[in-house]
Amino acid sequence: MVDVTKPALILVGPPGSGKSTVGRQAAQRLELPFKDLDDDLLAEHGLGAGELVVELGRERFQELEVELLRSVLTSFEGVLALGGGTPTAPGAAELLAGHTVVFLDVNLENLLKREGLVPLHPWLMPNPRAHLRRLLEERRPVYRSVAGAVVTTSGRAPEDVLADVLEAESALTGHVGSAGRSDDA
Fold it and tell me: Which of 137, 147, 148, 162 could form a disulfide with 172 if both were Cys (CB 3.0 to 4.6 A apart)?
């Protein structure tokens, strides 16, 4: 196991893009721990990300995200899934510079098909389609700017996305073989 001082892999993308699902699988495959920044916010503040945005306002919520991100980037060595809006917070892009970041991109139709998205993010109401369309338009350029690679998740099985994420991680880090590691060899 390589001794690293920052996350081995960071996944960014909109809510519902598969960051947590694929992140857990990538961590397992890379034999590393997994961390979801939204879970840490919930543990620390007792409210989910969507509820915190409503309770605190977007500006204060983003300040909390950046504080947590700063701490995690210096102490966590595994696979990290960021909240959908984390890369857009003031200062977050600078913190992510130099890290292995993969953007999980998903189209609007696939986002709308994913169950549970609206209840998890109450700010999407009353018109989820319009909010998600705007969110994707605003955030895609930010996600692309902080990521070294883009992997599309629309209409794909998590296992297929995982293969592309691990290939991207390997290409970005230059660690030949880290993506295709097999215990069967």
Answer: 148
Burial of 147 (0-12, 13-18, 19+ CB in 10 A): buried
Q: Which residues contact 185 (CB under 8 A, 6 or more apart)?
A: none
- Give the HSE-up count for residue 52: Cα atoms under 13 Å, Cβ half-sphere: 21
pLDDT value for 6: 81
pLDDT for residue 178: 47
- DSSP per position, 31-42: T--EEEHHHHHH
- Taking only the tens place, the pLDDT of each residue in 63-88 is 999 999 999 999 999 999 999 999 99
Measured CA distances, 51 to 38, 92, 110, 139 (Å): 11, 21, 24, 20
Tokens standing for residue 92: 């977050």
Rounded to two decimals, what is the model's pTM? 0.86
Q: Residue 47 carries which DSSP code? A: S
Q: 51-84: b or e for each residue (b if 16 or more CB lie within 10 Å)?
A: bbbeeeeeeebbebbbebbeebbeebbbbbbbbb
E strand or H helix that includes residue 105:
strand 101-105
